[in-house]
Amino acid sequence: MKFKLRVWRQKDPKTKGKLVAYEATEVSPNTSFLEMLDSVNEGLVARGEEPIAFDSDCREGICGTCALTINGEAHGPDHPGAACEVYMRRFKDGATIIVEPFRAKPFPLIKDLVVDRSALDRIVQAGGFVAARAGSAPEANSTLIPKQNADRAMEAAACIGCGACAAACPNASAMLFTAAKVSHLAFLPQGQPERTRRVLKMVTAMDAEGFGNCTNTYECEAVCPADISASLIAKLNREYAVARLRRNAGE
Amino acid sequence: MIGSLDSKTPAGPLAGKWTNHKDHARLVAPNNRRKFEIIVVGSGLAGGSAAATLGELGYNVKCFCYQDSPRRAHSIAAQGGINAAKNYQNDGDSVFRLFYDTIKGGDFRAREANVYRLAEVSNLIIDQCVEQGVPFAREYGGLLANRSFGGAQVSRTFYARGQTGQQLLLGAYQALCRQIAAGTVEMFSQTEMLDVVLVDGHAKGIITRNLVTGKIEAHSGDAVVLATGGYGNVFYLSTNARGCNVTATYRAYKKGALFANPCYTQIHPTCIPVTGQNQSKLTLMSESLRNDGRVWVPKKAGDKRPPAKIPEAERDYYLERKYPSFGNLAPRDISSRSAKEVCDEGRGVGESGRGVYLDFADAIARLGENTIRERYGNLFHIYEKITGENAYERPMRIYPAVHYTMGGLWVDYNLMSNVPGLHVIGEANFSDHGANRLGASALMQGLADGYFVLPYTLPVYLAGQIGKRPSTDHPEFGKAQSEVEARTKKLLSIDGKRSVDSFHKELGLLLWDKCGMARNAAGLREALGRIPELREEFWRDVRVPGEDEEFNQSLERAGRVADFLEFAELMCTDALTRDESCGGHFREEHQTPDGEALRDDENFADVFAWEYQGNGSVAPPKLHREPLVFETVQLTQRSYK
């Protein structure tokens, strides 16, 4: 197969970026999208040009490092899944493919297709944890957790922290990301003692990073590689509302 | 320079060693902890849990990772589960049995006391992770669920769907985040360690490169903890993440830390077969699949019929046939070699003929598709993404791939290397898995080291070190920094014709061929001849585009591949010197009549720890040996029949 690529090139945050045309030739349909970019880069290096900078690490959809917008869709056409799980058999031979970084104001660009997503870390730092000191935990089976609660917690906890939700959202909202963590811990007994402060702090941090709010476009759910349900955003809103009431009531 | 290797294993009966050690180990009082700065390199299960726990204890921690977030460390990709000796299933498990299975699984090439301690703290890990909110699988009654894993006859593995590593890492990451917010841990993401700094023979700092700005910086500390994972990417194709590398441990080796058993590499039996020239990595299908999947190939060589057209009588369920008591759950090294064997006989499946079937038809008939989906849904999903095939309808094709490295920097019982102050935890050290790691033990070891061992053993070193932290103005820092800068400049200045990746691929193929699933003296000698040539070519003809003071991925990779090109020689030297077969190290010259690994306990029941003497063939590394003393277990021929 062969493809015409238009790839976002930008030397650094200060320089203006633009889409640059490249060709990918002799591509096997069983090649992954990132491996296709690898070969384009090999060609660029051979010609003495700078390769395209893009992020990836595990290349099996779990680490959340890769962050490409392919033909306008965060992570490309094969949902649910990360960009590293897109295979060239998904595209028509000869197609033009536009590759851009994840675009959202809280994700400043570093170079070409690489953006800084440390804003997501800071949301977790604000409260996305259970304060459990090593050495102080009770016997694991001393707290029973109904299977359905554990399953729902697991579904929320599956978030890979890639930021596609914010990149796809017209408001650059990270509410799906935040909702996933808040819900994961709210579904479990271990998450109860900090439930109120957790959601208040995480939402405050999310706003401070410049992420927008949810207006129900569901783009986040559509591109989420971990298949996190947008219904969790409703849960986040309820958790937040209850927490505000509790706090206002002085609880 | 290095005397005899003292493992500092405590005296007394095996079961009491760790308690006894803790009872008498030196401590650092709470008010003194904040006077120490601890450098932790790596933020995976070992590094992340260590940094969080040390921060919680009141030490000042600086934690470094090359990823853009500590949550992306490669531990995240571990799928199957984590072992613990809880005996929740009432099926006869115990600390001793977990210890014994691990020692035996490692083919009697690990230190008894370390492995016993690992089994002992395994239960605490489960308690800790549950308390953090790790959503382990549960039964309807609300109790924790278990599954079985290779190399064990009890069901002791705890799991969170096929994403156990992810969930355990997120638990550690969240604990780390809490400490970052509390100010006890300072996090340096996208920062790669390029050298360790020794002052008066003690590890007192590191040199790093900021991967975004390219800035080279010095950091001093009272102790350095390396938690930088394994070196599987020396093979180019492996299940490791693209960024995984040997640089931190190799640089420490070049500064005098001993590298132990580098030839112990694990080839995992259940990975998706290689499909093409451009493949950049291999994907694991969790070993847990072997609980319900049956491995088979056609009986006849060259049988190209689709699997559904091959009648039952013409299939060879070779693991069940050869190992009736363990069947499809035979340990990884044994399963991998068996797969290679049947493919060598021309019975492999798939386009390349390098593959075997992992068939779920019986399990689906017995349990229903929904149960299988619940247990392994995400794995079937990954498989379909990569191959375009639906494994509910036709058997998966799998083939072994490099997955884990048991070798690593030599450490004593306190997890400290022979360089005072330099501690090594998780996959980066050599200590617990011997010559083969059992499934669901890597997560256990990483978290054991970070949550429950290092916090007790680090003070043994620190207690004598109050006020000894040098400033980065010390000349040793300047020297190390200049060396790193000079090397970076050199890589950029060669401006040859070949890409970094082309060298890495060539090295990988060579090692897979000569130092992979089966090795022999002639092949290893050949590799040892070729590696220095390839290295010389690299330093003459590599092309690294871009500049040093910028975000430059080619430069990052070039530095890592340069280290792999030296490390590969150490690995082959070790493989050649270890003139026996054991676990994952299979020397073709040493096998039983039915093709199993044949150990030589008389001559090789010890750890090989290599001391750096200079580059490669110019000055071969010096071998130190730590005899492995088995006071409790009897060394036997491993049998899984």
> Shape of chain A from CA axes?
elongated
Number of helices in the DSSP assignment of chain A: 8
Pairing-aware structural class of the strands and helices of chain B? alpha+beta
The helix/strand series of chain A, from N terminus to C terminus, equals EEHEEEEEHHHHHHH
Q: How many angstroms does the end-to-end distance of chain A come to?
A: 63 Å
By DSSP, the count of extended strands of chain B is 19
Q: How would you write the strand order of the largest sheet of chain A?
A: 2-1-5-3-4
Helix fraction of chain A, binned, reads 25-40%
Please explain how this structure is put together.
With 251 residues, chain A is of the alpha+beta class. In chain A, 35% of the residues lie in helices and 12% in strands. Chain A has helices spanning 33-46, 118-127, 147-157, 164-168, 175-186, 195-208, 219-223, 231-248; strands spanning 3-9, 18-24, 68-70, 73-74, 96-101, 109-111, 114-115. In chain A, the strands form two sheets. A five-stranded mixed β-sheet of chain A has the order 2-1-5-3-4. Chain A has a two-stranded antiparallel ribbon with strand order 6-7. In chain A, strand 3 and strand 4 (73-74) form a beta hairpin. The longest helix of chain A is centred in the last third of the chain and has 18 residues, at 231-248. Chain A starts with a strand and ends with a helix. In chain B, helix 3 (45-57) packs parallel to helix 12 (442-462). Helices cover 36% and strands 14% of the residues of chain B. The model of chain B has no long low-confidence stretch (mean pLDDT 95). The longest helix of chain B is centred in the last third of the chain and has 25 residues, at 553-577. Chain B has 641 residues and is of the alpha+beta class. Chain B is built from 17 helices and 19 strands. Classes of the chains: A alpha+beta (251), B alpha+beta (641). Chains A and B meet through helix 1, helix 2 and helix 3 of A and helix 3, helix 5, helix 6, helix 11 and helix 12 of B.
